Amino acid sequence: MANRILQALLALTILALALAPLWAGRADLRLLMEVLAYLALAQMWNLLAGYTGLISVGQQAWVGLGGYLFFALTILGGVPVFAAFPLAALLTAVLAVPTGWVAFRLQGAYFAIGTWVIAEVYRLVAAQVGALGGGSGISLPVAVAKSIAETRMGREYVMYYIAFALAVIAVAGVWLILRSRWGLALTAIRDSEVAAESVGVNTMRSKFLIYVITAGLTGLTGAFLFFQKLRITPDAAFSVNDWTAFVIFIVVIGGIGTIEGPIIGTILFFALREVAADWGTWYLMGLGALAIAVMLIDKRGLWGAIHARWGLSILPVSRNLPD
Amino acid sequence: MTVLLELKGVNKSFGALRVAQDVTFDLPEGQALGVIGPNGAGKSTLFNLIGGALPPSSGQIAFDGHDVTRTPASARCRAGVARSFQIPHPFVGMSVFENLLVASSFGESGHTDPEAAAAHILDITGLRHRANRHAGSLTLLERKRLELSRALATGPKLLLLDEIAGGLTEGECHDLVATIKDVQSTGVSIIWIEHIVHALMAVVDRLIVIDFGRIVADGDPATVMAQPEVQEIYMGISVEDAA
Ligand SMILES: Nc1ncnc2c1ncn2[C@@H]1O[C@H](COP(=O)(O)OP(=O)(O)O)[C@@H](O)[C@H]1O
Ligand SMILES: [Mg+2]
Hints:
The structure holds two protein chains of two kinds.
Chain A: H1 2-18, H2 20-23, H3 26-52, H4 60-76, H5 81-103, H6 109-128, E1 138-139, H7 142-146, H8 152-179, H9 181-191, H10 193-198, H11 203-229, E2 231-232, H12 234-237, H13 240-254, H14 261-276, H15 281-297, H16 301-310
Antiparallel strand pairs in A: 1-2
Helix pairs in contact in A: 3-8, 3-11, 3-13, 3-14, 4-5, 4-6, 4-11, 5-11, 8-9, 8-11, 13-14, 13-16
Chain B: E1 3-14, E2 17-28, E3 32-36, H1 43-51, E4 58-63, E5 66-67, H2 73-79, E6 81-83, H3 96-106, H4 114-125, H5 140-153, E7 158-162, H6 170-185, E8 189-193, H7 197-201, E9 206-211, E10 214-219, H8 221-226, H9 228-241
Parallel strand pairs in B: 3-8, 3-9, 6-7, 7-8
Antiparallel strand pairs in B: 1-2, 1-4, 4-5, 9-10
Helix pairs in contact in B: 3-4, 3-5, 4-5
């Protein structure tokens, strides 16, 4: 019953979001775009860290690469915007293959640090590319922006629906994966890697595939984020704070290893930001303190605790044995 | 007699600690082999080596006619090696049924209907009434039974059981013995590490004793138990349980 109510609430939220251009002002739309992009980033980090146990603190590598590849494709390659998005995602995933090959030699904390170092290397490389403005970055030519819509408001609408599609792809994609046979394996890896391996799950292959897929979708989100900003610089594109720290915060407070956790976490994160944005540094310290408190009190996060106590599930992925 | 599993000169060290020393034996197809030895002797390590959770420092392991010394655990499982863990490793966030479903979906191929296979195993091991419960909510004894069930759900040719009888009542122990005998009668080979010697003796065709990583006795169970050096190593438990 409670599940049904929550599901109805989710359906209503999706409907409201689908119709947002009808009721939201320009500033609200901008905020919603950011919320939806963060939801996509959080779902990807959660799929990676929450299910395969690969704690990456280098997600900014994929956001930055996606953004830079998108700018390179549209500015230097003359590729149309809507072709540049999937291409940037695909190329980011392709780059994740050799990157993963290096990162997977490292275990645990070394893997985490390794991903960060790799992201730094990508940032330094991006700053060397003169054709894309080097260290000071580059703006997207007006012609490229105008190619999606003539008017300013038209562009806002198109961008909004790109963000909406991104979030839907991320949430629905994760849900479909988790409900599949492969999802069974990923959930098993989440709970015990050694046991999953012992019942025939090729954990290495699953982890690598998830690493590459999440890199691609994170790259797609990066392409969108910098298309929306119309400007990219190495520091903004490869920011560990914006694209990894906040995302980890969202997933940890919301509930790692659940599909609902990142949704709850994203809502909470932006609610807090709206309230406390003026607090400056105190706000960031508060976020950190809250994340640590969650880990100490109940490391399953808000949704994890709710799910454990009341058995609630908005997007169920479990399979029952019928009587 | 076909040999299913073959260990040749297998050694394993953790730093200076040698937990497997020149371990060599064959397991004929269909045999139930018991393994005993003091705590810390290297019994569970032997399972890690056979199951592929740990690579040996040297030596060879062959299964079903193929060298598997460097084969990852998941591939060995798909070839037909299944194991239970002495300290249970349930998939705590999944139901009991789903725990088995992972095994029947990814274990040794051939389960065209993983759901039916999982349900069938739950009937055999008596966990059906817990099927839709969270594995994280099981008692230790139920978790041990889940270990056995999940291993069986992979559809193994060789079943490795690591101390699953501890803590059971007399009646439960009797049921467990019957279950394992049934499994063996379907052609599955078994290696069973167990401190509850009377349960072990009711099942196995052969007994190996391990001490300090070495096989110190190997043969007919009654003959092995009667050896003075085994009595010495095993005094406490054998006197109490073999009675
Ligand atoms: N992964 C490991 N790393 C280091 N030492 C280990 C490891 N696994 C087991 N050991 C040590 O090896 C010895 C044998 O352990 P084990 O095989 O579990 O013994 P048994 O199952 O016979 O009680 C013990 O001293 C144990 O502490
Ligand atoms: Mg042991």
